[in-house]
Amino acid sequence: MIDLVVRNASQVLTCTAPEVRPPFGGKEQSAIGLTKGGIAIDDGRILEVGPGAEKLDARETLDAGGGVVLPGFVDCHTHAVFVGQRADEFEDRARGLSYEEIARRGGGIRSSVKRLRAADEDELAAAVRLHLDRFLEFGTTTIEAKSGYGLSLEDELRSLRALRQDHAVEVVRTCLAAHTVPPEFEGKRDAYIDLVCRQIFPAVAEEGLAEYCDVFCEAGAFTFDESERILRAGKLAGLRPRIHADQLSRSGGSRIACRVGAISADHLEYATREDARAMKEAGVLAVLLPAANHFLDQEQRPVARGIISMGEPVALATDFNPGTSPTQSMPLVLNLAVVRYKMTVAEAIVGATVNAACAAGVQGRVGSLEPGKSADLIVCGVPDYRELAYWFGGNPVRAVVKRGRVVRPPAA
Question: What is the spatial order of strands in the sheet that 45-50 belongs to?
Fold first, then answer.
């Protein structure tokens, strides 16, 4: 007798494609692997998917109630280590102030840095735990989470340690010490970059606190040359690069991603089709963040349709952070990707599951429903997968399974 069987699903989305390995671009970007039946789970792993799975005897049964079953969402770009909020800046933007103007006044990233540095370890851990709880509510079972609100050796290490939680949500960690230059290094940019490259990255790698390094390549943060230097130093320390690229201007971040062998380039509002073609050739994934684009009310949007049409795989993420994307809802991201970026619902689902798993480097164990993979899945209270993006503002997730264990059971 096996551990668990999921039965009575209207649709099962495996997020697989015959004879094609992820990440999926081009026509495979919509490869949701629509099928029927159930899912058999044993020892934390998927044993079988399809009509035969429903017939197996199990110690526990999860009734999908005629809803859609799909892989747990993978949120491959988050800033989950912060304390407090920045609702005052939200109101300032409504009054006409730009993101850059708020930053010049001491707000933005520096505001979150001040709060994080003032928090003790217990406060920081509690804040992270609360954030992870909320991710789980929306069906996210794996996240990539960045530091970047510490901006000192001690506080960057504290931030990454705070992500070591006994929690159902799996966390892939990234050191974003190069988020901006902290106030104590005003006028001493090179000294801070030296600190990041020569002390913070090596210390993070030595303690095994992160798998990746990141940099915010943008005016007001780090230049093209600085960003490349930072990522190469991180790579030398043993951290694989990823990059915030071309969000507020055509900073060239996507091209740096190609040059340093980054796993992904994220945001890409100002990236061109030529940039996307270079990324495809270099094996760099495009991670789009429509919730941040929406929250900042940006008129400039990524050329998502062009990126997909040339075969470049697209992943989606929330960009969860206190200043520019205070949401953990991947269902909302699906809606925004369809409305703002003109992706199909199937393309968006692939972007939020298997392609996002590739962008987080965890596609070998999560992101799709296949025998042998970790049994990470969600049950949604809609009968048709297109409704996952159609009904927006609510939460369609009714149950969550992580590593074969029901971590969020259906409401009674």
Answer: 45-50, 38-42, 2-7, 58-63
* Rounded Cα distance, 268 and 326, in Å: 19
Average pLDDT of the residues in 270-288? 97
- The Cα–Cα gap between 159 and 150 comes to 7
The domain 73-360 is placed in CATH, from the list 3.20.20.140, 3.40.605.10, 3.20.20.220, 3.30.750.24, at: 3.20.20.140
Query: Residue 280 contacts by C-beta under 8 Å, 6 or more apart in sequence?
Result: 25, 310, 311, 312
Order the strands of the 140-146 sheet from edge to edge: 73-78, 140-146, 170-178, 212-215, 240-241
The structural domains of the chain, with segments of one domain joined by +, span 2-71+368-408, 73-360
Q: Alpha-carbon distance 332 to 322, whole Å?
A: 17
**Cα–Cα distance measured from residue 146 to residue 159, given in angstroms and rounded to the nearest whole number:** 9
Structure confidence at residue 99 as a pLDDT band (50, 70, 90): confident
Q: In which element (H, E) is residue 304 found? A: helix 304-309
Report the distance separating Cα 359 and Cα 313, nearest Å.
Answer: 10
Identity of residue 405: R
Question: Which CATH superfamily does the domain covering 2-71+368-408 fall into?
Answer: Urease, subunit C, domain 1 (2.30.40.10)
Q: Which residues pair with 5 in a beta bridge?
A: 40, 61
How confident is the model over 329-372, as pLDDT tens digits? Answer: 999 999 999 999 999 999 999 999 999 999 999 999 999 999 99
Partnered with residue 58 across adjacent β-strands are 2
Rounded alpha-carbon distances, angstroms, from residue 9 to 5, 12, 200: 11, 7, 48
Q: What is d(CA 55, CA 39) in angstroms, rounded to the nearest whole number?
A: 10
Q: Which residues is 4 bridged to in the sheet?
A: 41, 60
Q: Is the pLDDT of residue 19 over 60?
A: yes
